[in-house]
# Entry
Amino acid sequence: MKRKAAECRTTWDNLFVCRECWTPKHPQYEVRGVPEDQTVPVARPDVKATMGTTTVKTGASKNATTLELASVTGIADRDPIGIILDDGSAHWTFSDGTPAGTTVTLGSYLPYMTASGNTVYLPSLNDEEYVTATGMTATGL
# Structure
């Protein structure tokens, strides 16, 4: 049909229509989505990391492969052990076999001497995980 321009109107999507066919823009076209925050608020519970500890009973020299501890309770074959050395660093290794008496055979030699009374950390007593400087974990030993 032919219509005069004065009888027509432009719609919101830029169409030129007669007055009878003209409709306003529907409000639903203006709705914008709200981004949803999908992050997990707490990935794991706050659990205080605690390790079992004991002490060195008899000091050991550099390159020693055995260590006498005050207590070997809970130590089994391949359990991780962190030994505080006299230079203040911690040497992480593992128990190579079941302890005999209070003596633990180490999976690697001591890089520095350790004195009697130095702390020995036993993360396996509380199922703790540790990572060595080389990226080795207790489960990877």
Q: What stands out?
A: The CA atoms of residues 10 and 16 lie 4 Å apart. Confidence is low (pLDDT under 50) at residues 131-141.
